[in-house]
Amino acid sequence: MVEPVAGEWPAVPRRADTARSERRRVYERLGARLVLGDFLEVSTNWEPPTVIVADGPYGVGSFPGDPVSHRELPAWYEPHVARWSERALPATTLWFWNTEIGWATVHPVLDAHGWEYRACHVWDKGAGHIAGNANSRTLRRFPVVTEVCVQYVRRVTIERGGRAVALKEWVRHEWERSGLPFYRANEACGVANAATRKYLTECHLWYFPPPEAIEAMAAYLDRHGDPAGRPYYSLDGERSVTGAEWERMRAKFSCEVGVSNVWREPPVRGRERVKNALKCVHMNQKPLRLLERILIASSDPGDVVWEPFGGLCSTAIAAVNTGRRCYSAEVLEEYFEVARDRLAGHGGSLPFET
To answer: Cis link prior to 231 (omega < 30° from 0)?
Structure first.
C-alpha cells in the first residue's frame, strides 16, 4: 500500500448542537472522508478534484433511487454534472461508469457542460458472469457481460478579448500578435519544424506544447516580439505562464504498458467481495484493480479524488491504496455503514474481509 500523503482537511464550520450528529455522518481515516448524505448537499466544502469517479445510477432499477429506465438518466444526472463542472479544475479527469445505453443517453449532458470525450473503456467480466443468469430465448439478445467506464477531460478555454477561446487558438494567437513570423517559433524551441507543425497549427494535428516549449516561446516573444504586447503567453496579464502552470491546464495521464481500452477482469469475488452473511451487500461492487488503474493513470499521490456516489466506497479504498485523498458521499445509510466499517478495517493493500 502507498502511504497516504499527509495533509489537513479543510475546516468545516460546525454548530455545537450538530457535532454529535455529524460524527455519525462523517468518517475519516487514511486520507479518505466518507460522508452520509446527498452529494449535492454535502460536497460544498470539498476540495476541487483531480479525479472524479462517477458510478451512479444505471437506469436499471437495481437499488433505491436508481431510475427504472435509461431515458430518465439525463435529467437525473444533469444537476450532478453541473456541480462537477462548476468545481472541476482544468486538469480534472472524469471516469463515468454505466451501461452502454446509459452512458449514451448521458453523454449529451456531459458534452453540454464542457466535458470532452476521450475514450470508452469496456469492462469484460467474462463468460462466468452469465452462468445460469441468462435466457436468450426470453431476452431475445446475446447475454451481456460488459459495462463501460468512459474517460472525459475538461474542455479548457482562456478568456481573450471578451470571449473564451480554446487552448489551440490561444497558443497561435499569442504568437500571431507578437508580429513575428510563425517559423521563428522553431528557433525559439530549438527544433527544425516541430513548433510550427505541432504547436501553432490550426488543424486537427495540433499538439499541446510541453511545459519547456511554452516557456521557451514566451521568453522568445518577450525578447523579440512587439513590446506593446508583453507579457506573452500570460494567464493573468501580469507575467508569462510557467511550465508548471501550463501543465495544469490539461488532465494528467499515464498509460501502463500493455493495457488497452478492453479490461478483462472478473466480477469481484472472494475476500474482496463485501458480504452480509452469505449475501452480497452491493451487486455492482467494482474491482479495486480497475479503480486503482484509473486513479494511477489520471492523478498523482496526494491528489484529491471525488466519489459522488459512494456505495461501498471502493474508490475511497483504491485511493488509500494508491496514496490519493478521497471524498466520498453515500445517500443510503445501510451502504454508508458498511463502507465506514470497510474503511475502518482496512489495514493495507489487501481487500477488506467481512
So the answer is: yes
- Gyration radius (Cα) of the chain, Å: 23
Contact 85, 115 (CB under 8 A): yes
pLDDT category, 161, cuts 50, 70, 90?
Answer: confident
Query: Pick from 225, 247, 269: which residue ends a domain?
Result: 247
pLDDT digits (tens, 9 = 90+) for 260-292: 999 999 998 888 878 886 677 777 889 999 999
Residue-level pLDDT at 350: 40
Q: Are residues 271 and 339 in the same domain?
A: yes
Q: What percent of the chain has pLDDT over 70?
A: 89
Residues 6 or more apart whose CB falls under 8 angstroms from that of 115 comprise 81, 84, 85, 94, 152, 153, 154, 155
Please tell me the predicted confidence (pLDDT) of residue 237: 92
- The pLDDT, as a whole number, for residue 274 is 82
Closest CA to 306 of 108, 34, 25: 34
* Angstrom distance (rounded) from CA 117 to CA 119: 6
User: How many domains are there within the chain?
Assistant: 2
Q: Are residues 288 and 236 in the same domain?
A: no
Q: 65 and 140: one domain?
A: yes
199 neighbors 217 (Cβ within 8 angstroms): yes
